Amino acid sequence: MRHLRIFVTIVNEGSMVRAAQRLGLTQPSITRAMQELEQRLSVTLLTRAGRGAAPTAVGRKFADTARQLLKAFDSALDAPGQTPPLLIAYAWSGLIPAMETLLRTWRAQNLRQDIELARMPTPVMALDTAIADLALVREWTANPRYKDLRINREPRVVAVSAADPLASRDAVSFADLAPYGLVRPSHGSTTPHHLWGHPHNSGRDRIANDVEDCITTIATTQAVFGITPASTADFYRHSAIVYIPLRQAPTVVTSLIWSASGRPEVDEFVEHARGTLCPVTEKISAPKNPRVKASARQPICC
After folding, report:
1. Where is the HTH lysR-type domain (predicted)?
2. What structural domains and CATH numbers belong to the chain?
């Protein structure tokens, strides 16, 4: 089970270094465990690229199996009668303002049911395989297989190198970005390539492995930019990157989704979300980066 837990943590974190930090292990022990697991299974589970690590096609399937085994193992070790925590899967920046509010108020009112957030590459798949009880997703399209509740809306900001001429602007428009290339992560992006019909220099576009790779690319490449929700900008602050409000861009809506056949505790948490977020319009400050001006990022419910 130790090898499975290490493997799943690497997949969740996208890095052996971060997995070692999260588990409190050394990187050599992480590497050795993965070598032993791959030798035992006679397959390649991970591909290494720089500081990152991503599952192979076989590794993605095995990660789902490993998560189910770990969940069953952990549940078996729970004290008799103890309710396992509700697990909410997310891909990037799970602590958006609305979730901070929900977790704080839930823990103040409910002592018997704990909530855990777990970063996973594919939160919806975590629902499909019963690894997670709910998923936190952005730009969700209604699907009859799931129930959903919109809980947060926030503006988009542009990320550019601190050395770029645009870095001194108070705000930018799509016209300002026409000569620039777009940097997007390979999965989980909330920014479409076509930029809602606005122009950019597609010849300069870059695809990155993850958010950290996006930041490195933007910081070290001329005339490129990224677009991200304001809360992600707050979470991934970097001295070589400046985040600037983007005019005319659609806001990003975040939703909680869950299966109708889930645990009864899920319905209880969802009702808490409705009661906590729907009656109020909460004005939340923008990221603390001085380039990002204050803006309303308000929880919403529909």
Report:
1. 1-56
2. 1-81 (1.10.10.10), 83-145+255-284+298-302 (3.40.190.10), 156-245 (3.40.190.10)
User: How is residue 226 written in tokens?
Assistant: 């990224």
pLDDT along the chain (302 residues), means of 10: 87 82 81 89 84 84 85 66 78 80 88 81 80 90 91 93 95 96 86 90 89 89 94 85 94 91 86 80 42 49 56
The DSSP call for residue 246 is B
Please report how many Cα atoms fall inside a 13 Å half-sphere around the Cα of residue 251, on the Cβ side.
Answer: 14
* pTM exceeds cut of 0.70: no
Q: How far apart are CA 90 and CA 126, in angstroms?
A: 9
Token pair, residue 40, equals: 């035992």
Contacts for 287 with CB less than 8 Å, ≥ 6 apart: 157, 230, 231, 233, 234, 237, 243
